[in-house]
Design brief:
By secondary structure, this protein is mainly α. It contains 5 helices and no strands. The protein folds into 2 domains: about 1-95, no CATH class; about 100-150, no CATH class. It is globular, with a radius of gyration of 19 Å.
């Protein structure tokens, strides 16, 4: 149990408004797995460890997830379909219904990932994934702000 889900990059929390861990990644804990947050017998959450590592909102979300007594492997599901399996059709519907802000964040993140890959290949520069995405969002916010300032006062 908990052997397939990395704590930090996965969207595995059961909150409707945010499924990602909000606590910043802790140095040398980048590969922390969900199993590492369970008690010694794997039947309960290790609450003291969770409270030590994570922000309060993450703690509440984690502790609300029940631990299976059947000791089955964990797996991530596509929560937009009842069967939990992603397909292009459901992905398309989610994208169509997504708001413009989310779409621009995804586009900025994809650009940043491509740019980071290019930097890795040509300059041997490696940046942690969370910094790549954070930088993309910051860049997007600066770009949006400059666009608003540039077009203020113009009549269409």
């Amino acid at each position: 149990m908990g052997t397939k889900v990395n704590v930090w990059p996965g969207a595995w929390l059961s909150l409707d408004n945010c499924r990602d861990i909000q606590t910043p990644i802790i140095l040398r804990q980048e590969t922390l797995m969900a199993r590492d947050l369970l008690g010694h017998d794997g039947s309960v959450w290790d609450e003291s460890k969770i409270f030590t590592i994570f922000q309060h909102s993450d703690v509440l979300a984690m502790l609300s997830i029940p631990i299976s007594s059947r000791r089955v492997d964990d797996e991530l599901i596509w929560h937009y379909k009842n069967n939990g399996i992603y397909d292009v059709k459901s992905g398309y519907h989610v994208a169509v219904e997504a708001d413009e802000d989310l779409i621009s964040k995804v586009a900025a993140a994809l650009w940043a990932i491509w740019n980071q890959r290019k930097g890795r290949v040509w300059n041997n520069v490696l940046m942690p994934a969370h910094r790549v995405v954070k930088g993309a969002i910051e860049f997007l916010n600066i770009w949006k702000s400059s666009r608003q300032n540039m077009f203020q006062g113009l009549i269409y």
